[in-house]
Amino acid sequence: MAVDNISSVTEFILSGLTNQTGLQIPLFFLFLGFYIVTIVGNLGLITLIELNSHLHIPMYFFLFNLSFIDFSFSTAIIPKMLTSFVSKKNIISYAGCMTQLFFFCFFVFSESFILSAMAYDRYVAICKPLVYTVTMSPQVCLFLLLGVYGMGVLGAVAHTGNIVFLTFCADNLVNHYMCDIIPLLELSCNGSYINVLVVFIAVTTGIGVPIVTIFISYGFILCSIFHIRSTEGRSKAFSTCSSHIIAVSLFFGSGAFMYLKPPSILPLDQGKVSSLFYTIVVPMFNPLIYSLRNKDVKFALKKTLGRKTFF
Prior knowledge:
Elements (H helix, E strand, L loop, with lengths): L1 H6 L3 E4 L6 H31 L6 H29 L3 E4 H34 L4 H4 L2 H27 L8 E2 L6 H7 L5 H34 L4 H29 L8 H25 L2 H16 L1
Parallel strand pairs: 1-3
Antiparallel strand pairs: 1-2
Protein backbone atom coordinates (compact mmCIF):
# COMPACT_ATOMS: atom_id res chain seq x y z
CA MET A 1 0.00 0.00 0.00
CA ALA A 2 2.79 2.42 0.91
CA VAL A 3 4.57 1.63 -2.36
CA ASP A 4 1.44 2.53 -4.39
CA ASN A 5 1.07 5.83 -2.54
CA ILE A 6 4.72 6.68 -3.05
CA SER A 7 4.55 5.89 -6.77
CA SER A 8 1.61 8.35 -7.16
CA VAL A 9 4.17 11.19 -6.94
CA THR A 10 6.62 10.73 -9.81
CA GLU A 11 8.23 14.18 -9.63
CA PHE A 12 8.70 17.18 -7.36
CA ILE A 13 8.81 20.91 -8.07
CA LEU A 14 11.57 22.82 -6.24
CA SER A 15 10.31 26.28 -5.26
CA GLY A 16 13.83 27.72 -5.32
CA LEU A 17 15.41 30.37 -3.11
CA THR A 18 12.97 33.21 -3.87
CA ASN A 19 9.84 33.92 -5.91
CA GLN A 20 10.78 37.54 -6.67
CA THR A 21 11.15 37.78 -10.46
CA GLY A 22 13.53 40.74 -10.38
CA LEU A 23 16.08 38.82 -8.31
CA GLN A 24 16.21 35.65 -10.45
CA ILE A 25 18.84 36.73 -13.02
CA PRO A 26 21.12 38.57 -10.53
CA LEU A 27 20.99 35.56 -8.19
CA PHE A 28 21.72 33.21 -11.08
CA PHE A 29 24.96 35.02 -11.93
CA LEU A 30 25.86 35.45 -8.23
CA PHE A 31 25.60 31.73 -7.48
CA LEU A 32 27.17 30.80 -10.81
CA GLY A 33 30.15 32.91 -9.73
CA PHE A 34 30.19 31.16 -6.34
CA TYR A 35 30.12 27.78 -8.10
CA ILE A 36 33.01 28.70 -10.43
CA VAL A 37 35.10 29.92 -7.45
CA THR A 38 34.27 26.69 -5.57
CA ILE A 39 35.23 24.46 -8.51
CA VAL A 40 38.45 26.35 -9.32
CA GLY A 41 39.48 26.61 -5.65
CA ASN A 42 38.90 22.97 -4.72
CA LEU A 43 40.23 21.45 -7.95
CA GLY A 44 43.20 23.82 -7.75
CA LEU A 45 43.99 22.69 -4.20
CA ILE A 46 43.62 19.02 -5.21
CA THR A 47 46.01 19.59 -8.13
CA LEU A 48 48.56 21.43 -5.96
CA ILE A 49 48.64 18.63 -3.38
CA GLU A 50 48.95 16.01 -6.11
CA LEU A 51 51.81 17.78 -7.94
CA ASN A 52 53.95 18.75 -4.94
CA SER A 53 55.63 15.87 -3.12
CA HIS A 54 56.35 17.92 0.02
CA LEU A 55 52.55 18.07 0.56
CA HIS A 56 52.25 14.27 0.58
CA ILE A 57 51.81 14.11 4.35
CA PRO A 58 48.74 13.20 6.48
CA MET A 59 47.57 16.80 6.97
CA TYR A 60 47.31 17.39 3.22
CA PHE A 61 46.01 13.88 2.59
CA PHE A 62 42.92 14.85 4.61
CA LEU A 63 42.83 18.32 3.04
CA PHE A 64 42.89 16.65 -0.41
CA ASN A 65 39.80 14.64 0.56
CA LEU A 66 38.10 17.68 2.12
CA SER A 67 38.49 19.51 -1.21
CA PHE A 68 37.13 16.49 -3.08
CA ILE A 69 34.10 16.39 -0.74
CA ASP A 70 33.49 20.15 -1.12
CA PHE A 71 33.79 19.94 -4.91
CA SER A 72 31.35 17.00 -5.08
CA PHE A 73 29.02 18.53 -2.48
CA SER A 74 28.58 21.77 -4.41
CA THR A 75 28.19 19.89 -7.71
CA ALA A 76 25.34 17.84 -6.22
CA ILE A 77 23.45 21.00 -5.20
CA ILE A 78 24.28 24.16 -7.17
CA PRO A 79 23.61 23.14 -10.84
CA LYS A 80 20.02 22.15 -9.99
CA MET A 81 19.65 25.30 -7.91
CA LEU A 82 20.76 27.47 -10.85
CA THR A 83 17.99 25.92 -12.95
CA SER A 84 15.36 27.39 -10.62
CA PHE A 85 16.51 30.92 -11.47
CA VAL A 86 16.05 30.53 -15.25
CA SER A 87 13.04 28.20 -15.56
CA LYS A 88 9.38 28.65 -14.63
CA LYS A 89 9.21 25.24 -12.97
CA ASN A 90 12.28 23.52 -11.58
CA ILE A 91 11.10 19.92 -11.87
CA ILE A 92 13.04 16.98 -10.46
CA SER A 93 11.96 13.35 -10.71
CA TYR A 94 11.23 11.32 -7.58
CA ALA A 95 14.32 9.17 -8.23
CA GLY A 96 16.40 12.28 -8.93
CA CYS A 97 15.21 13.89 -5.70
CA MET A 98 16.09 10.82 -3.62
CA THR A 99 19.48 10.60 -5.38
CA GLN A 100 20.24 14.25 -4.60
CA LEU A 101 19.14 13.73 -0.99
CA PHE A 102 21.41 10.68 -0.67
CA PHE A 103 24.51 12.48 -1.98
CA PHE A 104 23.69 15.62 0.00
CA CYS A 105 23.58 13.58 3.24
CA PHE A 106 26.64 11.54 2.23
CA PHE A 107 28.82 14.61 1.69
CA VAL A 108 27.52 16.42 4.80
CA PHE A 109 28.36 13.43 7.02
CA SER A 110 31.69 12.87 5.24
CA GLU A 111 32.69 16.51 5.75
CA SER A 112 31.78 16.33 9.44
CA PHE A 113 34.00 13.31 10.02
CA ILE A 114 36.88 14.46 7.77
CA LEU A 115 37.06 17.62 9.90
CA SER A 116 37.26 15.48 13.05
CA ALA A 117 40.00 13.33 11.44
CA MET A 118 41.92 16.54 10.67
CA ALA A 119 41.55 17.62 14.31
CA TYR A 120 42.98 14.28 15.46
CA ASP A 121 45.90 14.73 13.03
CA ARG A 122 46.65 18.17 14.52
CA TYR A 123 46.44 16.69 18.04
CA VAL A 124 49.07 14.03 17.20
CA ALA A 125 51.29 16.57 15.39
CA ILE A 126 51.34 19.03 18.30
CA CYS A 127 50.96 16.79 21.36
CA LYS A 128 52.97 13.74 20.18
CA PRO A 129 55.42 15.02 17.55
CA LEU A 130 58.06 12.33 18.21
CA VAL A 131 55.69 9.51 17.26
CA TYR A 132 53.74 11.43 14.60
CA THR A 133 55.02 9.47 11.59
CA VAL A 134 54.26 6.17 13.34
CA THR A 135 50.86 7.19 14.72
CA MET A 136 49.71 8.79 11.46
CA SER A 137 51.10 6.09 9.17
CA PRO A 138 49.59 5.61 5.67
CA GLN A 139 47.66 2.60 6.98
CA VAL A 140 46.14 4.64 9.85
CA CYS A 141 45.26 7.51 7.49
CA LEU A 142 43.56 5.10 5.10
CA PHE A 143 41.66 3.49 8.00
CA LEU A 144 40.46 6.93 9.18
CA LEU A 145 39.41 7.83 5.63
CA LEU A 146 37.44 4.60 5.28
CA GLY A 147 35.72 5.49 8.56
CA VAL A 148 34.91 8.97 7.21
CA TYR A 149 33.26 7.68 4.04
CA GLY A 150 31.70 4.76 5.92
CA MET A 151 29.93 7.18 8.25
CA GLY A 152 28.93 9.19 5.18
CA VAL A 153 27.22 6.12 3.69
CA LEU A 154 25.51 5.24 6.99
CA GLY A 155 24.17 8.78 7.42
CA ALA A 156 22.96 8.94 3.82
CA VAL A 157 21.24 5.54 4.05
CA ALA A 158 19.56 6.49 7.37
CA HIS A 159 18.16 9.78 6.07
CA THR A 160 17.24 8.60 2.57
CA GLY A 161 15.65 5.40 3.89
CA ASN A 162 13.65 7.51 6.35
CA ILE A 163 12.24 9.61 3.46
CA VAL A 164 11.78 6.79 0.93
CA PHE A 165 9.24 5.02 3.17
CA LEU A 166 7.10 8.16 3.51
CA THR A 167 3.90 8.64 1.50
CA PHE A 168 3.57 11.71 -0.75
CA CYS A 169 0.06 12.64 -1.86
CA ALA A 170 -1.13 15.32 -4.31
CA ASP A 171 1.15 18.18 -3.19
CA ASN A 172 4.59 17.91 -4.78
CA LEU A 173 5.95 21.46 -4.27
CA VAL A 174 9.14 21.28 -2.18
CA ASN A 175 9.69 24.59 -0.38
CA HIS A 176 13.44 24.61 -0.95
CA TYR A 177 16.09 24.93 -3.68
CA MET A 178 17.10 21.27 -3.17
CA CYS A 179 15.70 17.99 -1.88
CA ASP A 180 16.41 18.47 1.81
CA ILE A 181 15.18 16.37 4.72
CA ILE A 182 12.93 18.82 6.59
CA PRO A 183 10.97 20.16 3.55
CA LEU A 184 10.30 16.59 2.38
CA LEU A 185 9.14 15.59 5.86
CA GLU A 186 6.72 18.53 5.92
CA LEU A 187 5.43 17.58 2.45
CA SER A 188 4.67 13.95 3.33
CA CYS A 189 1.20 12.70 4.24
CA ASN A 190 2.21 10.22 6.92
CA GLY A 191 5.26 11.75 8.56
CA SER A 192 5.29 11.03 12.30
CA TYR A 193 7.36 11.83 15.35
CA ILE A 194 9.36 8.65 14.63
CA ASN A 195 10.60 10.15 11.35
CA VAL A 196 11.53 13.37 13.12
CA LEU A 197 13.27 11.34 15.84
CA VAL A 198 15.31 9.44 13.21
CA VAL A 199 16.40 12.77 11.70
CA PHE A 200 17.33 14.17 15.12
CA ILE A 201 19.33 11.06 16.12
CA ALA A 202 21.15 10.90 12.77
CA VAL A 203 21.96 14.63 12.76
CA THR A 204 23.04 14.56 16.43
CA THR A 205 25.36 11.63 15.63
CA GLY A 206 26.68 13.26 12.46
CA ILE A 207 27.37 16.56 14.24
CA GLY A 208 27.77 15.47 17.87
CA VAL A 209 30.42 12.75 17.50
CA PRO A 210 32.76 14.87 15.31
CA ILE A 211 32.29 17.93 17.55
CA VAL A 212 33.15 15.92 20.68
CA THR A 213 36.24 14.52 18.91
CA ILE A 214 37.27 18.01 17.81
CA PHE A 215 36.74 19.52 21.29
CA ILE A 216 38.74 16.75 22.98
CA SER A 217 41.54 17.09 20.41
CA TYR A 218 41.73 20.86 20.84
CA GLY A 219 41.54 20.53 24.62
CA PHE A 220 44.77 18.49 24.56
CA ILE A 221 46.24 20.83 21.93
CA LEU A 222 45.63 23.91 24.12
CA CYS A 223 47.21 22.18 27.12
CA SER A 224 50.30 21.40 25.03
CA ILE A 225 50.48 24.93 23.61
CA PHE A 226 50.35 26.51 27.09
CA HIS A 227 53.31 24.33 28.09
CA ILE A 228 55.39 25.71 25.19
CA ARG A 229 57.71 28.33 26.66
CA SER A 230 58.74 30.22 23.53
CA THR A 231 56.33 32.77 22.03
CA GLU A 232 57.39 31.72 18.54
CA GLY A 233 56.55 28.09 19.27
CA ARG A 234 53.10 29.01 20.57
CA SER A 235 52.43 31.24 17.58
CA LYS A 236 53.45 28.49 15.17
CA ALA A 237 51.20 25.95 16.92
CA PHE A 238 48.23 28.33 16.87
CA SER A 239 48.74 29.18 13.18
CA THR A 240 48.82 25.45 12.35
CA CYS A 241 45.31 25.05 13.79
CA SER A 242 43.71 28.41 12.91
CA SER A 243 42.55 27.44 9.40
CA HIS A 244 40.94 24.26 10.68
CA ILE A 245 39.19 26.10 13.54
CA ILE A 246 37.67 28.60 11.08
CA ALA A 247 36.47 25.81 8.76
CA VAL A 248 34.97 23.87 11.69
CA SER A 249 33.17 26.95 13.05
CA LEU A 250 31.62 27.80 9.68
CA PHE A 251 30.46 24.27 8.88
CA PHE A 252 29.18 23.06 12.26
CA GLY A 253 27.78 26.45 13.26
CA SER A 254 25.56 26.75 10.19
CA GLY A 255 24.59 23.05 10.25
CA ALA A 256 23.59 23.06 13.93
CA PHE A 257 21.64 26.31 13.47
CA MET A 258 19.62 24.70 10.66
CA TYR A 259 18.91 21.19 11.99
CA LEU A 260 19.07 21.29 15.78
CA LYS A 261 16.38 23.96 16.22
CA PRO A 262 12.63 23.30 16.17
CA PRO A 263 10.79 24.53 13.01
CA SER A 264 8.77 26.97 15.18
CA ILE A 265 11.99 28.80 16.12
CA LEU A 266 13.47 28.72 12.61
CA PRO A 267 10.82 29.01 9.84
CA LEU A 268 11.56 27.07 6.64
CA ASP A 269 12.08 30.21 4.51
CA GLN A 270 14.78 31.40 6.95
CA GLY A 271 16.15 27.85 7.00
CA LYS A 272 16.71 28.03 3.23
CA VAL A 273 18.89 31.10 3.71
CA SER A 274 20.87 29.56 6.59
CA SER A 275 21.41 26.36 4.59
CA LEU A 276 23.24 28.43 1.96
CA PHE A 277 26.16 28.65 4.39
CA TYR A 278 27.00 24.95 4.57
CA THR A 279 25.90 24.05 1.01
CA ILE A 280 27.52 26.95 -0.88
CA VAL A 281 29.57 29.31 1.31
CA VAL A 282 31.58 26.67 3.23
CA PRO A 283 32.70 24.66 0.15
CA MET A 284 33.70 27.94 -1.51
CA PHE A 285 35.65 29.34 1.45
CA ASN A 286 37.46 26.17 2.57
CA PRO A 287 40.14 26.21 -0.18
CA LEU A 288 40.61 29.97 0.36
CA ILE A 289 40.98 29.52 4.14
CA TYR A 290 43.49 26.70 3.79
CA SER A 291 45.51 28.34 1.02
CA LEU A 292 45.66 31.98 2.14
CA ARG A 293 46.63 31.05 5.71
CA ASN A 294 49.04 28.24 4.84
CA LYS A 295 52.70 28.85 3.97
CA ASP A 296 53.19 25.35 2.50
CA VAL A 297 50.26 25.76 0.09
CA LYS A 298 51.39 29.26 -0.95
CA PHE A 299 54.93 27.94 -1.55
CA ALA A 300 53.54 25.03 -3.60
CA LEU A 301 51.44 27.47 -5.65
CA LYS A 302 54.46 29.70 -6.39
CA LYS A 303 56.54 26.63 -7.26
CA THR A 304 53.87 25.24 -9.61
CA LEU A 305 53.23 28.60 -11.32
CA GLY A 306 57.00 29.13 -11.65
CA ARG A 307 57.35 25.69 -13.25
CA LYS A 308 54.61 26.49 -15.80
CA THR A 309 56.15 29.91 -16.56
CA PHE A 310 59.54 28.23 -17.16
CA PHE A 311 58.07 25.72 -19.61
